[in-house]
Design a protein that fits this description.
By secondary structure, the chain is mainly alpha-helical. 56% of the residues lie in helices and 7% in strands. It has 2 domains: 60 residues; 125 residues, no CATH class. A hairpin with a 6-residue loop joins strand 1 and strand 2. Bound molecules: zinc ion (2 copies).
Length: 200
């Protein structure tokens, strides 16, 4: 005769001989307790599953809302985001430097000032050789103080880079995706640079 299999009761941990493969209790009483426990567990699982589904649904809705909101934004919106990120990088790169135009370091608010303006030369608006730390006075009141900017710019980046900067640039049209990438690129670059500066 085959050895009768035995297992421990899920409720009292006593050994018993099951009469079927799915019997996990030693007595009808413990079977009832086991049934209730299983039902409670299943109920908990159902609640958790519904909660997870609800969260996923909310997240998916938020994502698609964000995408739809971005889809209706004009290209200028993405340019302004990219420019903010780019300018912030320039300010961190040049932090502690004096004004590229007047050579003063007033300790007041400094800006990222373009040599070739964004309006006149769109192709160089995200060119790092074209943008340097500049005081508020030169930037706002003297419209960049370009006459004074030039010699200090040449001294800083070199004649070759300067000639390249003021030379011809292929007309460039950015897509939304390129501008989003550009903004992300400069945010990351700024973060890395800040970390580097803090460690130094
Ligand atoms: Zn039992
Ligand atoms: Zn200045």
């Amino acid at each position: 005769m085959a050895k009768q299999p035995r297992r421990r009761c899920k409720i009292c941990r006593e050994w018993f001989h099951p009469r079927s493969f799915n019997e996990w209790w030693c007595s009808p009483e413990h079977g009832a307790v086991f049934g209730i426990q299983e039902r409670d567990k299943q109920r908990q699982r159902d609640i958790q599953k519904a909660e997870t589904q609800r969260k996923e649904q909310t997240q998916a809705e938020r994502r698609s809302l964000k995408i739809r909101k971005l889809a209706v934004k004009p290209l200028s919106y993405f340019h302004s985001k990219a420019q903010i990120a780019f300018n912030e990088f320039i300010r961190v790169r040049d932090s502690g430097h004096s004004c590229i135009s007047c050579g003063r370091n007033t300790g007041a608010k400094m800006n990222a000032g373009h040599y070739r303006t964004v309006g006149a030369s769109k192709e160089t608006r995200y060119d790092e050789t074209n943008c340097h730390l500049q005081c508020e006075h030169c930037n706002s009141h003297l419209s960049g103080n370009i006459g004074e900017y030039k010699p200090r710019l040449i001294a800083k980046i070199g004649q070759e880079a300067f000639d390249r900067l003021i030379g011809f640039h292929e007309p460039k049209k950015w897509t939304r995706e390129e501008l989003q990438d550009l903004a992300a690129h400069y945010r990351a670059k700024t973060r890395a640079l800040k970390k580097q500066l803090e460690a130094a």
